[in-house]
Amino acid sequence: MANTRNSVASKLLKARMLLGHPELAKHVPVTRSYTPSQLHDMLKRYGMVYVKPDVGSQGIGVMRVEKQGSTYRYQSGMKQHTFSSFQDMVRSLTSRIGAERYLIQKGIHLLRYQKRPFDFRVMIQKSPARQWEATGTAARLAHPNKAVTNGSQGGTIYAAKDLLKPFAGDQKTAALLYRLNRLARLTAARIGRTYPAMNELGLDVGIDRHLKPWILEVNTRPDPCPFTKLDNKDAIRKIVAYAKAYGRRYPLVCNKSKKAPCCGRK
């Protein structure tokens, strides 16, 4: 019997679905269930990871955790916490996490603008003809004092090409944006096979210093707010129209994210 769910909450479940696909697996950071021993192993291997709730949105509860020499630190919101031992840090993390299910994701060193990391929200939806179509890509620049890029956490929204071009040039930027759309289509096809009632996905995709894209998260109830902040309104018009065709209405109350300064990068 076909699965009639049109949303999937567990980030770990979605990551495992993508890791089961040969091409997508190359673009998904290593993701594990949170335990202190897994955290120890992944910090030893990667130096920097993200610890995040398995179920949640808007960057709430996401922490950047690092090991530098014999020092451990994590950032939650705008606060940095530093420890001289792994055990002390784990005690602090445990008091924050409580009984909630968390996961650990290998940290990706994202491209930066004004010393702030940025990533991309790629929207893909079922068209009125019921075909998956990438309907928009927006860049999200992190709040100056935060480790997450979400607009709901005070991030600034830019046209994707404005932040990519200085790193990739015109031609490579166009090729990269095409590649992001391809990853979105593969992701939608992969998840849509298990959940055929799914109508929309929002992919959070980071690009590292080697210009490799990484799928950081897949949202099955994406908020199109970032697209309201773009000067070009084509994407938000299409997103709203497609959603209307499959019965979803967005509130579009988008007060927390910021609009980029006029005319692109400043």
From TrEMBL:
Could you tell me which InterPro entries the record lists for this protein? Answer: YheC/D (IPR026838)
Name used for this protein in its record:
Endospore coat-associated protein YheD
Q: Which organism is it from?
A: Paenibacillus solanacearum
